[in-house]
Design a protein that fits this description.
This protein is an alpha+beta fold. The protein has helices at about 30-40, 100-110, 135, 145-160, 170-175, 195-210, 235-255, 295-310, 330-350; strands at about 5-15, 15-20, 55-60, 65-75, 85-90, 130, 165-170, 215-220, 265-270, 270-280, 280-290.
Length: about 350
Amino acid sequence: MSLIVEQLIYSSFSQLGFKYIASVNVPLGIQQFFYQHIVSQLWDTYNPPDRKFKGVYIYQIDSHNTLFGWLINDGKDEFGRGDIPYFHCYYLQKLLDSKQLFKILACLEAGPLKRISRDEAKISLDPVILADNYQANAFELGIKLSKDIRLFSHRQLREEKPLQWFISSKETKERQKPTDNNYDNSKNTLPREPNYQVEIAKILQELAEKPLAIEGIMLVSPQGQPLTDSIGMEHNSALILAGTMLYLANNTKEELSWSDLEQIAIRSPQGHLILTPCSDQAFLLVKTGKTITGLLEVEIQKTRSKLQKILAISNPTPQTPLLNPAANPFLDSVVEEFEIVLETEDSVISNQ
């Protein structure tokens, strides 16, 4: 069965300079994703690979959107600039299954059907059909994939984990050859997946370093489980505060029949405690001392936007067992005390 894919290319083109071009059917969001998460991540302008460099990649945005393709160091451009990257990418907008993955891996080994010249005056990218005889007609930019990479890819698909890896020809050449039955597969060069936890931690640390009297930050799940290490707060204290805020959020939504809450905030002359949803599965908890509310809100929203981009393509998992009122008497007492405060304030207002 044939597959139809769209094309994207990034390089330095004659009279155009560096830019990416795409088939007319590739959505703008996919084009931007291609540049931000593939081109920008795989090519270091200040430290480019050698002239013979060649690599292949696959990036599954979600189950219905998959990018895969090739990267080479294409030498110099018309302006004499060296180490010009050439990214050739195929885009599959279809639910990915094992048969399609098998065809994609074969395609990565063969190369793109046609190499686009950077000197062409007018470049038009048409859809490509991945037919059964594709390999015989492909341009030789592909890389021979090992059995490990194939097994890894199919396992990720079976377990419904996103396929996101890159491997170069240098890595495949340096792979150890099996010599006997004691061959250790763990020494193989496996595909590299983006380390989203590191990226998330970096974003949180950037917020923590802002001059806003920030005393604690943590990313938590809707059940109050930690998705990251706490910054500035003792771990259990952070979980208790997160659990209390989530309890308040859930009860407020239930009592008022609201579908979503943009933010839960507790403010006092001594500081702020703010819980902000970044996705359906992640909440940003921020605790501060006395600070300027407006500036704090701006920085929290900036951080939220950065986290949303990563959380949209990653699935951070809780680090420790759930800490909840049923399992933690201390948290239970905090929630009860918090309820009493709310009821007391409410009754005072009603009596007035």
